[in-house]
Amino acid sequence: xxxMLVCDICTQEVPSEDDMKSHLLLAHMEENSCCPxxxxxxxxxxxxxxxxxxxxxDSLELEPWNNDEEQPQEFxxxxxxxxxxxxxxxxxVGSKQHIEHILPEQISPVSLxxxxxxxxxxxxxxxxxxTTESLNSSPVASNTEYxxxxxxxxxxxxxxxxxxxxxxxESGCQASASxxxxxxxxxxxxxxxxxxxxxxxIEELEFHVKMEHADLVDTPTKETSRQxxxxxxxxxxxxxxxxxxxxxxxxxxxxxRNEASADGFSKDSILARQLQAEEDKHRREEEAxxxxxxxxxxxxxxxxxxxxxxxxxxxxxxxxxxxxxxxQPMEFHLQKAQMMESIATGVDDGRxxxxxxxxxxxxxxxxxxxxxxxxxxxxxxxxxxxxAGDKGWGCGFRNCQMLLSSILKSSSYRNSLQxxxxxxxxxxxxxxxxxxxxxxxxxxxxxxxxxxxxGTKAWIGACxxxxxxxxxxxxxxxxxxxxxxxxSGTHPLLFDWVLxxxxxxxxxxxxxxxxxSKPAIYLQHQGHSRTIVGIEERKNKxxxxxxxxxxHPPEIVQRLTRHNLDNSALKILRKHFSSLKHKQxxxxxxxxxxxxxxxxxxxxxxxxxxxxxxx
Length: 615
Known about the structure:
Layout: E1 5-6, E2 13-14, H1 17-29, H2 45-55, E3 74-76, E4 89-91, H3 109-117, H4 132-136, H5 153-157, H6 165-170, E5 173-175, E6 190-191, E7 198-199, H7 202-212, H8 214-217, H9 222-228, H10 241-301, H11 310-323, H12 329-345, E8 353-354, H13 357-367, E9 372-377, E10 383-384, H14 395-408, H15 426-439, H16 443-448, H17 462-471, E11 474-481, H18 492-503, E12 513-515, E13 521-525, E14 528-538, E15 543-548, H19 554-557, E16 574-575, E17 585-593, H20 596-605, E18 612-613
Parallel strand pairs: 9-12, 11-18
Antiparallel strand pairs: 1-2, 3-4, 6-7, 8-10, 9-14, 11-17, 13-14, 13-17, 14-15, 15-16
Helix pairs in contact: 11-12, 15-17
């Protein structure tokens, strides 16, 4: 009967040493093993060997053989000079089989390096107790005391081969009856597999492991083993301390990289914030500069840039005309003297005034204009055009002069205008508006102009006209047509209001031409102002406003004073529905004279200006 070898780990029987090596390599080296004495699982072969030697040293003695068989003899390894051989010498050991796990006596530098990379793997040597007869009959060891075996790379990791006693007994091998354990003197340095501390003997190594690493050599269960190697950072359970250490080192390296990247990110963030702050500052400066330029443009547009007023602009235009040859020096001095006289007296010089337009219109409508069924005209009024001294900003003042000329020619207002017998010039009108502000009219408007108009080119509107007329005891009102009253964007309600205004006291007057006693109406819209002097009703029931525009030069307006007017000459006066398409219009209409008490009431109401809104 051939001898069989038994695996110490799984007790599987194999017929030869080569089969045993293959079995150990395939079944126990490449896969995780489990302890045959306890429930520990998931260990490599080296870890299992160390675990059995430390945790189950008392259980290494096997059960006695059956009574009908001889007790096997124990072979003890003797250390030859060459580490390439494993020698087995017989020794008597009583009636039980003993398996001892010992360390080699001498370790070569090559094996030391291998031990450092494989955590000091232990070499297990098995002593076999058998009879002398079986030894003598063995073909391998019949004439020698030792059983030398060549050590292959596989043998360097695992060299524990189990010899079956039955096989030896059947081959007739006889061994000595006595067996003994041979103590080995270890003169090499032993290294702890846990902390790499070195010792000079096995006893010191065992004592060190039991004292310093007792928690690692205790027999753990499957659950406690996993909990013991739990990562303190991410709670990952590792199979052993070595893998846990490598895992924690990865965490530490990652933290270092994160700190470095965070430091770089912090610097980048600071730089980005600095660049953003500089960009915001530059943008704010550009916006402030742009806003400043826009404000300066508005100041120049509305005459609030302190570039001079009517007098300065008149002088500049006269000098420019002389330089360009359009004006002789003698004429220059003459016009300059007239201008200075007009400013000094406060009376307009009349150089841009055109009179007699309404008389010519009355004659025209009476004898011609067959397309007109009826026309309503205001009280007599003069036309005032812009001059070189107020061109671009003086339309409000020129319309104010037209309105005053209409009021002064009416006997109903002579008592109210005791201090204004003549048409004032533009600087005088500016002074009259400033006086109204000083009386307390329209404080908000006064603050807008800083309480000053003289010496500026500031534009004026309906509020300033209202304040000046009210301060002169003239009863008037402001009406605000704040939005179009038709779907086409026109203002038919404005036309209806003007018609009612001029036809209120002459509704039963016969004739085609109706001359009302009402003064002209001041008309204001965005960027310009004009004066309404009448309204005509056509035979197709449409209406057309008659408007004086200060932008028309005196030469063109004087054509309307001729008695032989034609229909084409009235184009500069007629404004149909489609001609008034601004979004908003305001008008100032004179209603009569004011008593001192009524003036005081209107003064209080002007603290907060409220116009009548239509619609």
